[in-house]
Structure to design on (256 residues):
């Protein structure tokens, strides 16, 4: 059994997608949503980790950073992005944390024909998902400008990553003319949310990307389309993580 932990969990798409993947591969497993507030996160995770038939966890907003403290071993990508979106029980009983948000995001871009190498990307949001996406975009050869309403958070992420990607990482307070503009915040999940940025201020050549999966056509993407910009939907990031999750949980490889 596997669980995806978040607050809220009504919007999570992983159970339907992962359970379909389990069925397609003939894997006797199920992924269920588990609601945990920040105050209850440690209690919920420790309880699941102590359950004998729970072999792994997925982690979503707002728990990706806190999940690191609940792991015994942290993979390099999770350490660099300072967050985890998956945890697994190792054969020795220890719990290992990994992060596949960034790799799934880049794979999704490439599958849609948006190669990030050599492109300038404006990333709005320096939280758990944004940090992982930043690491993978930079690793893929992109130039990156980061914006966050919390200036300290943007500064901290930039300072942490700059030594690894010298000369390709910047910060900005407002709209940036870029090849891709990415919303890596939760804004757009609720109807009353403001836009994370105004697509009308971007060049018409910019591709607007949202990582919010539900609703599929967020207000940001609808607005971008009205202004004639190409858009890229949030579900691609998760869809391109599914096989990575299978491998991480030891369920990948050839099957009869």
């Amino acid at each position: 059994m596997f669980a995806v932990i978040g607050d809220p969990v009504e919007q999570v798409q992983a159970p339907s997608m992962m359970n379909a993947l389990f069925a397609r591969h003939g894997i006797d497993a199920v992924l269920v949503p588990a609601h945990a507030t920040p105050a209850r996160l440690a209690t919920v995770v420790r309880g699941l980790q102590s359950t004998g038939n729970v072999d792994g966890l997925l982690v979503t907003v707002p728990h990706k950073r806190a999940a690191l403290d609940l792991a015994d071993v942290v993979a390099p990508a999770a350490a660099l992005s300072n967050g985890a979106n998956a945890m697994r029980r190792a054969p020795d009983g220890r719990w290992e944390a990994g992060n596949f948000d960034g790799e799934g995001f880049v794979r999704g871009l490439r599958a849609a024909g948006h190669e990030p190498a050599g492109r300038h990307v404006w990333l709005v949001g320096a939280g758990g998902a944004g940090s992982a996406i930043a690491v993978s975009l930079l690793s893929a050869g992109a130039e990156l400008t980061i914006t966050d309403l919390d200036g300290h958070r943007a500064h901290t992420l930039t300072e942490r990553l700059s030594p690894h990607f010298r000369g390709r990482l910047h910060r900005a307070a407002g709209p940036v003319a870029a090849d891709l503009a990415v919303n890596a915040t939760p804004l757009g999940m609720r109807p009353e949310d403001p836009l994370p940025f105004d697509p009308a201020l971007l060049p018409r050549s910019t591709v607007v990307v949202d990582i919010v999966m539900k609703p599929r056509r967020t207000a940001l993407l609808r607005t971008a389309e009205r202004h004639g910009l190409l858009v890229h939907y949030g579900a691609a990031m998760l869809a391109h993580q599914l096989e990575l999750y299978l491998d991480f949980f030891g369920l990948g490889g050839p099957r009869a």
Notes: The chain has a mean pLDDT of 96. DSSP finds ten helices and twelve strands in the chain. The first strand starts at residue 2 and ends at 6. The longest helix spans residues 14-25.
